[in-house]
Amino acid sequence: MEPVAVAGAGSIGVAFAIVFARAGHAVRVWDPYPAALERAHDELSDRLDQLSVHGLVENPNAVSARVTFARDLAEAVAGVALMQECAPERVDVKQDLIRRAAQSAPGQAVFASSSSAIRPSLIAADLPEGLGERILVGHPGNPPYLVPVIELVPSSATATSAVERARAVYTAAGLRPITVSHEPEGFVFNRLQGAVLREAYCLVRDGVATVDEIDEVVRSGLGRRWSLIGPFETVDLNTRGGLESHAEKMGPAYARMGAERGQNDPWTPDLVSTAVRQRRTLLPLDRWEERVRWRDEQLMRLTPLWEDIRATS
């Protein structure tokens, strides 16, 4: 397997090092600060030991041996398939790092930023001609060795080959990529998280429920279902007749809730039709009962585990 570089030795950099090394890549972790590299070395060992206890890493010593730490950026990126940039959330810092790395990395190497919100077109702006074709955002769930979703966010300049190369590296490392179009700030993960968090703050502000009570709704309600199925599949399975029936019955109430918060984003017939078409491609209505039964069986199977976790928390 081709080596991979991780630029930035903070917690997310260490997490990516585990992801790639666990999959068999030689990983070079770079950081300009010796103290950061020393801390990362200790954190890597600690995380691998913890994963090993739970059976998620078979041989922590073998995984650790694939990770090296370097202060020389040119050495770190030599011959890599991909550099995972984990620098602070500043455009200028990310640009400078990628510009310098590109001087020593192979011509086909992909530069993937772990940015949570910065658009890849902003990172690519003002960089040398052609470099933008190899830049995208690879935004992970945190920590990626336990939360496998990763958002691939290309700019309009990003080459399709760079996206597919990154997708191949991530998929082989056990991550589950989705492609985000149009570069929305916050991408998908943080926009969904942000929508829930904004409403949670409003509910606290309005005295509707306490912080812990709202967390309990997620812990014992939404979160349990969402660990198995997402929001579209949840409402699709909650209503006989599926998503179309749910939108017809509940759409007006959700529109009123949105309007109460100053949002005017109704579920128009065209939008509902698009969502229904995509859901029915994934699950024909003649399999609806089968999928509902599957959902319930998975919730039953996981309930003792969840209750055990709650009892010890």
From TrEMBL:
One of its GO terms (molecular function) is (3S)-3-hydroxyacyl-CoA dehydrogenase (NAD+) activity. Signal peptide: none annotated. Its EC number is 1.1.1.35. Residues 186-272 form the 3-hydroxyacyl-CoA dehydrogenase C-terminal domain. It comes from the Bacteria. Pfam families: 3HCDH, 3HCDH_N. The keyword Plastid does not apply. The keyword Oxidoreductase applies. Keywords: Oxidoreductase. Belongs to the 3-hydroxyacyl-CoA dehydrogenase family. This is 3-hydroxyacyl-CoA dehydrogenase.
